[in-house]
Amino acid sequence: MTAEAFPDPAVGIAELNGEIVVFGTVSTEFFTLTGSTSSESVIYRSQSAALINVGIAGPHCKALAGSQFAVISHPAGGRPSVYLLGNGRATEIATPEIIDALTATPADELAGGVVEFFRYLISIAG
User: Fold this and answer.
1) Beta strands in the chain (DSSP E)
2) What distance, in Å, lies between the first and last C-alpha atoms of the chain?
3) Do 9 and 23 contact (CB within 8 A), yes or no?
4) DSSP 92
5) pTM reported for the whole predicted model
6) Which pLDDT score is estimated for 78?
7) Residue 56 to residue 12: CA distance in whole angstroms
8) How much is the pLDDT for 16?
9) What is the maximal distance between C-alpha atoms in the chain?
10) Which residues, given as ranges, of the chain have pLDDT below 50?
């Protein structure tokens, strides 16, 4: 399987709100269910408006963060960084220090990275 709009090797796959998300090395593409029951028609169709030109470094370099994915990007798409992917866009969230650390990490080691999303509550007594 490849991300169709920019055929690059698929590194990961996930589901978000009924859509299939295919993460390549330099692109991420969203596919939606067509509702077709015919074996001659496609079941999932690419959502070209949701194509994002950021891929992931490795299979576990993504985590669902609310309605988006937090990812470590692949060096093949430029310098590696940390992004939020969703709504047809990528938002970089890494600090310069994190970008420097990721850039200094060889691609094969970066591919072994794991992204986890933690939600926490801060309580202020007053």
Assistant:
1) 10-16, 19-24, 28-33, 44-46, 62-65, 68-72, 82-86, 89-92
2) 54
3) no
4) E
5) 0.81
6) 86
7) 8
8) 86
9) 64
10) 1-3, 126
